[in-house]
């Protein structure tokens, strides 16, 4: 077997055989297939696609590239959630302790932000002392003791995906349904969760820009999970506008704590509860009441224990930005658009995200939104507050957000997009 013939098969719109797939994933993980060969193959897959058999085999080969975790010793049923990524998507933060407070074990292996979408680990690292890197044993201990753990995936889990994802990120080959589906599901299946709820984002701030593509991605992932014995369901949710009123690391932690305290923006609360119900259902805990766990403080209690178990101080003050810049509404009327992608790029340019994997992020950088689509605004009122520790970034960020909103004449009829689309 050789890399050139595998690339040629896909370049010429052929079907890869099981043997070709097993070989190329294994040889790439071992370093025998070079990055430039794998990037050519990834581009051929992006352009020419894969059928269901190829996707299933590619996923199985990525799972087999590393270890599998085992949560069978836990007394509680396991339930996990994965979002395909968005702007202001802090849902994992309130959701994991909430579902734990309702009786499930939530092993939430999460990632860092890259590009315009934020990363759960970057957000939590703005809490003084909190550690994302846990050994498998530490992870199991937190999961057993608290019921929820949010941490980085160990190096042993789907190492083929780790290499391939980093390569796709710098070769414009992220947005391929077969590659996204196999990347996400190989990690989730290797992680060993019994059930999984997928939050497939649709809109300008998501990888999937339209419903048809999001449906295909969702059904591909649900099929892969089901075939591997993981009870898998998917919600398609809106990402044309940022979730909540913040995009940025510490800003989003603050908003998540508001939700756990029984407040917070309506769209964040709605999506957190919708995903919690799906997770509890999939875990066989149909009688649990997540709204009650938010209201009676038990979700907040699980959050505090989860943060403390990972070295964080749940009472510590979160970092605040050294410099702010306020953008005001140029006219009075109805806000009809606030673009998730533009806000994500703006927050990233302010320092909330990284351009390269090894870059540090600023804990306090990001954007606060003072209005959401459907709100009435008055000329001169604050619309967005930009936060950074490095004010030389303001001009670059302003370029990204200057066209991020539309204000229509006062009284214009406007119907808001539901958060859960399907
Ligand atoms: N998240 C992943 O883990 N992989 C992808 O390919 C895209 C989003």
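-> sequence recovered:
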């Amino acid at each position: 077997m050789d890399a050139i013939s595998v690339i040629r098969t896909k370049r010429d719109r052929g079907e890869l055989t099981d043997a070709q797939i097993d070989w190329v994933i294994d040889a790439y993980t071992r370093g025998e297939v070079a990055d430039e060969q794998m990037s050519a193959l990834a581009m051929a897959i992006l352009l020419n696609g894969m059928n269901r058999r190829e996707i299933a085999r590619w996923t199985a080969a990525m799972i087999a590239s590393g270890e599998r975790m085992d949560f069978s010793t836990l007394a509680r049923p396991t339930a996990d959630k994965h979002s395909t990524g968005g702007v202001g998507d802090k849902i994992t933060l309130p959701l994991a302790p909430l579902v734990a407070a309702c009786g499930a074990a939530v092993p939430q292996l999460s990632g860092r932000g890259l590009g315009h979408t934020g990363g759960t680990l970057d957000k939590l690292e703005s809490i003084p002392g909190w550690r994302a890197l846990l050994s498998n044993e530490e992870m199991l201990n937190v999961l057993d003791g608290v019921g929820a753990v949010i941490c980085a995936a160990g190096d042993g889990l789907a190492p083929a995906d780790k290499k391939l994802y980093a390569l796709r990120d710098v070769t414009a080959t992220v947005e391929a349904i077969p590659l996204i589906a196999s990347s996400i599901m190989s990690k989730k299946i290797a992680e060993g969760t019994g059930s999984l709820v997928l939050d497939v984002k649709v809109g300008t701030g998501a990888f999937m820009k339209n419903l048809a593509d999001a449906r295909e991605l969702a059904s591909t992932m649900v099929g892969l999970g089901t075939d591997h014995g993981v009870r898998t369901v998917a919600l398609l949710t809106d990402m044309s506008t940022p979730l909540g009123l913040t995009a940025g690391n510490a800003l989003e932690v603050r908003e998540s704590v508001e939700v756990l305290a029984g407040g917070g923006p309506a769209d964040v609360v709605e999506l957190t509860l919708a995903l919690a119900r799906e997770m509890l259902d999939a875990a066989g805990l149909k009688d649990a009441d997540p709204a009650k766990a938010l209201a009676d403080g038990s979700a907040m209690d699980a959050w505090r224990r989860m943060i403390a178990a990972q070295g964080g101080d749940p009472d510590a003050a979160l970092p605040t930005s050294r410099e702010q810049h306020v953008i005001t509404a140029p006219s009075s009327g109805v806000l009809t658009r606030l673009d998730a992608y533009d806000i994500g790029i703006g927050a990233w340019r302010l320092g909330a995200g990284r351009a390269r994997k090894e870059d540090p992020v600023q804990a306090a950088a990001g954007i606060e939104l003072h209005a959401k689509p459907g709100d009435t605004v008055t000329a001169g009122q604050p619309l967005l507050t930009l936060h950074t520790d490095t004010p030389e970034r303001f001009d670059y960020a302003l370029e990204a957000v200057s066209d991020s909103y539309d204000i229509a004449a006062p009284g214009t009829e406007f119907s808001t997009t539901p958060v859960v689309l399907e």
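The chain has a mean pLDDT of 95.
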